[in-house]
Amino acid sequence: MSNENNRKTWAQPWSYREGTIVTAAILLLGFALQAAGGGIVLRVAAFPWNLVAGLVFLALLISAFVLWQKHQVMKWLGGVKAALPAILGFTFLVLLMGFVKQDVEPKSALVRLLGLTHLVKTWPFILINLYLMILLGIVTLRRLTPFSLKNAGFFLNHFGLFLVLFSTALGSSDMQRLRMNCYEDQTEWRAMDNSGKTVELPVAIKLLNFNIDEFRPKVTIIDNQSGQIVLNKGKNQFELLDRNALDLFGYHVDVEQFLESSGKVGDAYFPVNEPGSAPSAKVKVTKDGTEISGWVCSGSYVNQPEALKLNETHSLVMLPAEPRKFSSELHIQTKSGKNIKTTIEVNRPFKVDGWTIYQLSYDTEMGRWSNLSVLELVRDPWLPVVYFGIFLMMAGAGFLFIYGKPKNGGTEHVA
After folding, report:
1. What are the residue ranges spanned by the domains of the chain?
2. What is the pTM of this model?
3. What is the per-residue burial (b if ≥16 Cβ within 10 Å, else e) of 114-147?
């Protein structure tokens, strides 16, 4: 430890001190470039230029390693004393993304200038990612000679992680994330990106039917003067109308009749099944010997909600029903000649010709009567490379478990 403290900075062999300085310099340079550019959002060139750039990078990296693999700097770049500070620098940016909300309009000039709301598209992130790829590339090449089964685990781990970073960096500009508004019985082939630009797709989608399965609505007590929900021990209290009797804020509520879809005629509600019909319930509420009966209704885009006034202070109200799940029956046609009928719902997307179609939203104002289904279409041609990299990392972990760590692998690899 004393020798390390007495050693002059940049004197060979380099250590963690130089690794920390290099990482800090890369981050500072990145933020300086970002500020000089006015906080511009950076984008990697799309295919085929990103592939060309990636091949040039690989050629330069391999050439530099072949020419200078015995140089002290090259050996240091392939060791843990350069890698650990770089990983910490990368982790710092990832943590920063967790503390600063991403992909939103920045609220201050400094946040905008440093690009903190879109860090993955800034100079600091690109430079530290490039530095990590260089380190991983060097240690991966070092593990090729001499190659053995014991070395295979480390090689697969590092090469797999290199592929993940390499493909995500180059593929960011090729990924498309679009929103499509589909109306029932209409065919749509246009979608919008995040900037609002209309994009014509090689996929045409017709919404055959949109379905919503709802929970039973909840009821609660509100204050007649403020219209606010009455708090029970400092918290909002709701009760689901899934049983015939319930207690709510000191009131006992008996559900005499519940209608999932209803319309009002006179002073009562009757079962109907037409656009705009809403859930309603006839209830009897008792408290301290006082009893009151009447109807409550959650309302809809057609009908007004109805509350039951309990006394001068409180009223019983029914809240709008919450969706249990919603799904879209689709007819999909592609330029490649595919003709498909399928149903998608949240967390159950459908894949066709490189596109993944997700159920995103609907017209919440119309609720279960919505004839609009909002879909998200995602295309990421580099995703198979990412998956392949993850598979290699898993295979590397398996090799390490079976054959153990190489004798010379304790301190000379990227963690």
Report:
1. 2-174+383-403, 178-213+324-379, 216-321
2. 0.76
3. bbbbbbbbbbbbbbbbebbbbbbbbbbbbbeeee
